DNA sequence: ATGATTATTTAACATTTGTAAAAGGAATCG
DNA sequence: CGATTCCTTTTACAAATGTTAAATAATCAT
């Protein structure tokens, strides 16, 4: 059981475990990805990425929770959450190169693996399997987003809340209700009312 | 000005023009795609794809308009529209292989170029440029979808309506209001009220 | 053209959600 | 521990949207 491969048993292994479930890539490809990664540790409530900058990093959540947020008429709106073992990025900026009106904030003391997106996109030419891996990653994310639209477009706030609590009870345990409310597209007061029903 | 390339000046040329703007592919790749395409002409109000089947075709709208729709508690809901020179597919089924609860209906006498998605995905191995082209296509579609969530999540119905009419006046000219209403996430009556404001 | 069908608007009322302010709880920090 | 701050709930009222039904308007088929 020799360990000649630098990417095994390192601080990056949760990321490669995650990748392996989606598309197998060669050890050379893993090394190439590892070379464009780095670790960020962010304390609770701080920003991992601030509003106004162009998204040039795709983050893997090793530990903790993050949310993408923005301001709409002065009020804080949560676009999405990311828990452990998932990726988070401000896609609309990542793929357009435009500055993002959104930021990424951390809700617990958290640890991320950051992947430089310009360097990653460069790797696509050299490693077709890396391109394929990330194609699949974003295709899945796209599908989630389409399903989310369906939820926002024609389910009541109450239905959305109950769907959320059933699908992932972690939401309620680890995320303040004020953030859940805007994620559901309603106010905090409205959410309290829904919760009071039973 | 010889025309030795079979994909030029054919009924498929609008599709390849569309592709060219996103990512150049070789003539061989074009030929390979052409081999898995076919034309569908569908009369107004008919279904191009019916509810309940798995999505195995990506359509390019050559002429006309189509919409993706489904039923929520018996009422018809429009998820999205596609005009000329754009692609339409039930993504959540295309990428998961699961049957779709959604259908595609045609709103004018329309003409489509259908691309077989299983055959297309097979081409990805042989033609990395085809994989790259469609990666870019779906990345753009993903970005649109993320922006749509922002719109549904925290803009009022009135804001959404005015944004729609300004961005694409074609909507009002060519699409019945009853379909626009559910696309905006509101009822027809509500939309009439908004329109009556001025 | 004419009648039938379909689409859109209007009206009245019910329900949901928003807003603002206050009160109660929970967490945090010195 | 105590004080402060932040989070959540509650209250009362306003605004937006839904529901049902009826009235117009537009379109379609013969």
Give a description of the structure.
Two copies of one chain form a homodimer. The first copy, chain A, is α+β, with helices and mostly antiparallel strands and 198 residues long. The first copy, chain A, has a domain at 13-121: Jelly Rolls (Sandwich), CATH 2.60.120. Helix content of chain A is 45%, strand content 22%. The first copy, chain A, contains nine helices and eight strands. Chain A has a four-stranded antiparallel beta sheet with strand order 1-8-3-6. The termini of chain A are far apart. The mean pLDDT of chain A is 93. Chains A and B meet through helix 5 of A and helix 5 of B. The first copy, chain A, binds a DNA duplex (30 and 30 nucleotides) through helix 9.
Key terms for this structure?
homodimer, 198 residues, alpha+beta, Jelly Rolls, 8 strands, elongated, DNA-binding
Brief write-up:
Two copies of one chain form a homodimer. Chain A has 198 residues and is α+β, with helices and mostly antiparallel strands.
Q: Helical segment tally of chain A?
A: 9
The percent of residues in helical segments of chain A reads 40-55%
At CATH level 2, the architecture of the domain at 13-121 in chain A is Sandwich
Strand percentage of chain A:
15-25%
Biggest interface, chains and residues, is: A-B, 32 and 32 residues
Written as H for each helix and E for each strand, in order along the chain, the element string of chain A is HHEEEEEEHEEHHHHHH
Give me the side-by-side strand order of the main sheet of chain A. 1-8-3-6
- N/C terminus separation of chain A: 55 Å
Choose one word for the global shape of chain A.
elongated
Q: Stretches of chain A where pLDDT falls below 50 for ≥5 residues? A: none
Annotation, overall tally of beta strands of chain A: 8
CATH secondary-structure class of the domain at 13-121 in chain A: Mainly Beta
Strand pairing plus helix content of chain A: what structural class?
alpha+beta
Q: Mind describing the biggest β-sheet of chain A?
A: 4 strands, antiparallel
CATH topology of the domain at 13-121 in chain A: Jelly Rolls
Subunit organisation of the chains: homodimer
Query: What is the radius of gyration of chain A?
Result: 18 Å
CATH superfamily of the domain at 13-121 in chain A: Jelly Rolls
Q: Mean pLDDT of chain A, rounded to whole units?
A: 93
